[in-house]
Write a structure and sequence with these properties.
The chain is an all-alpha fold. It has one domain. It is built from 22 helices and 2 strands.
Length: about 425
């Protein structure tokens, strides 16, 4: 490898490290706040999450699905855990009881996922997560992520009003990174996300020295702790809800692998071997996660947006980025140093990265020629999901507390509706749908 290639690999590895870190660091912080954990417990979860995530990425890229896809805390499970934590008072449970039920449900789901993979159930699972379900998944994911990171770009002052200066700075970062991506040469375009962080971070600190980073934590200790959210229990309502959500989480695996196969221009569909190995590892990570208060793991379909934005498909930088993430978790203080990355800068850069994911979602349905009948198989679940995402969460408080996390989650409801439509209706028999129509 010549010196130029070494430089590309080095900077691409740094870019992967930032991408993984920014996607992971906010999860333990928010879980800690939702379950009223001590600073020491939050730091423990953060360090463990970084180590497990780095190792998970390397193992998936090496012996799992073998694509450079971030394996990290599932957004589906993250949202369900936050909702369950918030509903603890209405359920008449303590946060520790809810956390213990979550640990039990996640542990069982991880074990079941591994067993399904071991005993050859991949074809059966594929029949549930059909291509159209994956298309709906990608569209809802791109919309959900755009909404999350757009909100993260908007700085809110202590009095609840918008901090206009910081928000405008975030929009400037978006424009800057998008300009580099669109107008820059290949090298600058491929590293536009990293350039946005490296340039935006110091300028933000100069302009807004009092603003907080992604994690307002100063403690650098935090040993490893078992079941920080609560000891496993049999609070059946919590266990069942978490178990169902974790099984639905398998849709991440199928959507991510299918999308990765497409961008790598593989002529054959991904082998069941890839799905089996990936599900085995994901189930294992979820079992480990349940022990240490982590969110259940899954391949990030959103990594497709990152890959298409950077146009760097080599796995070496991905592996090195994973190794750096492990180092951040092992060495006290390193993770907390990077956690000072301004929230709005991180969100602005990721917002641009995930614009590519929307393009992936559009390309995933281009083989279909919809008409007035078949449009329902795509439009109904997508628009239902988006409508719930945009609805006021207070609208769902009159429902039984145990089903609120499910019904109020637009992403889950959209995917569930898509599964039902694909399993119960014969769309090809109702009307022609392919481009040959």
């Amino acid at each position: 490898m010549n010196q130029s290639n070494y430089k590309v690999t080095f900077f691409a590895s740094i870019q992967w490290m930032f991408f993984i870190f920014v996607n992971v660091v906010v999860v333990p912080i928010s879980i800690g706040a939702a379950f009223e954990l001590s600073t020491n417990e939050v730091v423990s979860i953060l360090r463990t999450a970084l180590i497990v995530t780095g190792a998970a990425c390397i193992l998936q890229g090496w012996i799992g699905h073998r694509y450079p896809l971030l394996e990290g805390p599932s957004g589906i499970i993250w949202g369900v855990m936050l909702t369950l934590g918030a509903s603890a008072p209405s359920l008449g449970l303590t946060l520790k009881e809810v956390g213990g039920g979550i640990a039990t449900g996640m542990l069982l789901a991880g074990a079941v996922t591994m067993l399904l993979a071991l005993f050859g159930a991949v074809p059966l699972i594929e029949k549930i997560f059909k291509p159209m379900v994956k298309n709906v998944f990608l569209m809802l994911l791109s919309i959900q992520l755009a909404m999350i990171f757009f909100k993260g770009m908007i700085s809110i002052a202590d009095d609840g009003s918008m901090n206009v200066a910081i928000t405008l700075f975030s929009l400037a970062i978006v424009i800057f990174v998008a300009f580099l991506k669109i107008k820059g040469n290949n090298l600058i375009s491929n590293f536009s996300l990293l350039i946005g962080i490296v340039v935006g971070w110091p300028i933000f600190n100069l302009l807004f020295p009092e603003a907080e980073g992604m994690a307002a934590i100063t403690q650098t200790s935090g040993g490893w702790m078992l079941f920080p959210l609560g000891q496993p229990n049999l609070q059946l309502s919590i266990v069942v809800m978490m178990f169902i959500a974790c099984l639905l989480n398998m849709s991440n695996t199928f959507a991510a692998i299918q999308a990765a196969s497409a961008i790598f221009n593989e002529k054959e569909t991904p082998s069941q071997h890839r799905y089996r190995n990936s599900l085995l590892l994901t189930g294992l990570y979820s079992v480990i996660g349940s022990l240490f208060g982590l969110v259940a793991y899954a391949p990030f379909a959103s990594s497709i947006g990152f890959l298409e934005s950077t146009q760097i498909y080599d796995k070496k930088p991905f592996f090195w980025g994973g190794a750096m993430i492990i180092a951040l978790g092992v060495v006290p203080g390193l993770a907390l140093m990077l956690a000072q990355l301004p929230i709005t800068v991180g969100n602005a850069v990721l917002f641009v990265a995930y614009l590519q994911l929307f393009g992936t979602a559009l390309k995933s349905i281009r083989e279909y020629a919809f008409n007035s009948v078949t449009i329902h198989r795509f439009a109904a679940p997508v628009l239902l999901g988006v409508s719930i995402m945009m609805a006021d969460p207070q609208l769902f408080t009159s429902l039984p507390s145990i089903i609120q996390p499910l019904i109020s989650n637009g992403f889950i409801m959209g995917v569930l509706l898509s599964i039902v439509l694909e399993l119960t209706l014969k769309w090809e028999e109702n009307a022609e749908e392919r481009l040959t129509s």
